[in-house]
Amino acid sequence: MELFKQKLAWFSLGIVLIVLVVFGAALMGSVAGSKPKNLPVALVVEDQPAQMPGGGALAVGEDLGGKLESNTALPVAWVRVDSEEEARTGLNNREYYGALVLPADLSRGLLSLATPEPKPATVTVLVNEGMNTQASALVRQILNQAMNRASAELGGQLLKQIGQKTGQIPVGTAQALLAPLIVKEEIVHPVGVNNAAGNAPGILVQLMWVGSLATAAILFLASRKPVLAAAKKWAMAGAQAAFGAAIAGATSGFVVWMAASWYGMELASAGAVWLFLWLIGAAFFLLQSALLNWIGVPAMALLVLLMFFSMPLLNMAPELLSQGTKDWIYSWTPMRYAAVGLREVMYFGGWDTADRNATVLWSIAGAFLVLLLASGSKKAKAAKEKLDVAAPAMNP
Q: What residue ranges are annotated as transmembrane (predicted)?
């Protein structure tokens, strides 16, 4: 057939393979095979040693805390803190994905199991869901499994000791020994209803990137059409920046309204989310427009690739990524700062908690605004060269 004689038909296979390799690396290479490690978790040991009837002291809290810290099989970086209040402060500051609180009456409660009135101690597991849903769910599973295992081991040891001393075990004591530790779980900074299981910040950031890219492309093409004097090129660049920022404000408001009205997304402060999305949209637009004005249409390929390489990382905790991904993509992609900052606004109390990421976004917006305005000199120079070329032809 004539089709198979065409070189382009055979080249198409190579082109498709290249596209699959590039986008496969973007969508899967950065996250496939990632393993959690060094998840920061606060450990509070408030347990006070209790005196045993036969002499000596029982310090279950310290023993249990030491075993957890020495267990290298757990992908956890334990951080000892002095009190539950200090642990909660760290959770509010996005320092830990969770916390384990061993209460002051832990040893005393275990000793009470051998008495007619057993009072099992309550261990508290705090899960920082808003910090990252995937990482906090993993920490939640690890802490619950560790406490259930510890409860079973302690119950077995006490059952053996009581059986050796008395020969018979009261029903109440036997029931208490089945669960010598009561595990109470508490979710802090919950993600709310219809928040895509905590992935809403990443989704909203992706929408703003696509919307800003469409705006930047349209205004870039519009700014190329008129033949302007050199001085007006600067005004065109300024108008492009101002109009794009205004559109970013409108589109961010629409995105918030759409998420809440159409999809029932629970937003603690819709106004704060809208303002932060406006900052995100404006920063994205200025970045995209500056690259388009300086590089031209080829910048679209770079911006699309940046989006595809960044998208899989937006809702992942850095502790779940490989070191190469963290160093080469996660550490600098602007979409990461937008997603983390928006997560802080949505789940941790508003703008005051997102000051660091907001500062980065303001810096991006300012730097690329300067580059966008500076592109006016490039356009002015190009217009002058066209006039210089056309002048001899008009005056032979």
A: 203-222, 234-261, 267-287, 294-314, 359-376
Per cent of the chain over pLDDT 90 is: 57
Provide the pLDDT for residue 225. Answer: 62
**What are the beta bridge partners of residue 50?**
58
Q: Are residues 355 and 229 in the same domain?
A: yes
Tokens of 230: 């050199």
Q: Are residues 291 and 381 in the same domain?
A: yes
DSSP sequence for 84-113: HHHHHHHHHTT--SEEEEE-TTHHHHHHGG
Per-residue pLDDT at 134: 93
Q: What mean pLDDT is reported for the chain?
A: 85
pLDDT exceeds 50 at position 389: no
The three-state secondary structure class of 125 is strand
Please give the Cα distance from 168 to 246 (Å, whole number): 79
Q: Is 260 exposed, middle or buried (0-12, 13-18, 19+ CB in 10 A)?
A: middle
Q: Are the beta carbons of 136 and 76 closer than 8 angstroms?
A: no
Spatial separation of the C-alpha atoms in residues 276 and 280, rounded to whole Å:
6
> Which residues form the domain of 78?
39-188
CA distance 344 to 193: 17
Q: How many structural domains is the chain composed of?
A: 2
Q: Looking at the structure, do residues 213 and 327 belong to the same domain, yes or no? A: yes
Same domain as 378, residue 319 = yes
181 shares a domain with 267: no
